[in-house]
Amino acid sequence: MCGAALGVAYEVREMMRGTRERFHYRRCVECGCAQIADPPADLAAYYGDRYYSFAAARRGRWSGIAVRLRSARDLAYSPAAPAWARAMARVRPNPLVRCVGRCPGPRAGVLDVGAGDGRLLADLARLGFTQLLGVDPFASEDRGDPRGFSVLRRDVHGLDAAGWNVVVLSHSLAHMADPVSTLRRVAQLLAPTGTCIVRIPLAGSWAHRTYGADWVQHDAPRHLMVHTRRGLEIAAARAGMRIVEVEFDSSGFQFWGSELYRRGVPLVRVSRSRLYWDFPPWVLLRYARAARALNRNGDGDQATFYLRRAAPAAIAPSHSAPGGQG
Length: 326
Ligand SMILES: [Zn+2]
Description:
Layout: E1 10-13, E2 22-27, E3 34-36, H1 61-75, H2 83-91, H3 95-101, E4 108-113, H4 119-126, E5 130-135, E6 143-145, E7 149-152, E8 164-170, H5 179-189, E9 190-201, H6 206-211, E10 225-226, H7 229-238, E11 241-248, H8 253-262, H9 272-278, H10 281-296, E12 302-309
Parallel strand pairs: 4-5, 4-8, 5-7, 8-9
Antiparallel strand pairs: 1-2, 2-3, 3-10, 6-7, 9-12, 11-12
This protein binds zinc ion (ZN).
């Protein structure tokens, strides 16, 4: 990302699906980003239909209940939210909906880059947001959703429509081989006063330092580059944007997910009973408290960054490369 030298390689196993294949990562000596040294030739094979961003449509009979619960929760973000809905959102907020909601400008024109099954867009549509679009190179096909948005099978370079008020990259930048060219394209697609929301796992955070190769958000080999705050600052500047705000939003997942990997248990194979046996409610509460403390100290293992376009004079001449991989 910043062009500096890379340090010594270390081994990380593929543990989400549990193939246990070994990949190597090297960290930048300057900005601390962790970069995969030996990406697989066919990355799509590591997504597949079990990947969590695409899993919502196949949750069977529980999905209806989950959707209703989430709709009730999201009510809290509407202007006329009843008190019970606001209380519920405090207990279990949808972090991304809140992030989009606090961006200035109209409640229209939201582009989700790496949209998966369109979960965020569906939530936003329910709250009255309009002009919603998702792109995801790992989607199976272009798909129009009856709830009022589309998810297109392509990356951000394959998109011409500009003037977006909000562009969201939620846990998608780490999957991209050339994040600077992606951010540069996003800067071009943003309205002059628009906001780019980047949520990423953070290399060098407490969980990464503590769990090392077993850190759950390493997610080899899908995460081609795990960034740092410094690395994103550099990338944003090169793309003609600047970071205006940072919110650390790590959760108890950094503890229980990494503990599972340390014990050799893949994320998708763990049964619900095993999960509750290993991590009973009081343990999960302790993890959640510890995550909040890490976030307060700026050491949580993920954060949300709000980017704006730099002053027009500072924007570098456009030379984005269409066809870059997302
Ligand atoms: Zn670097």
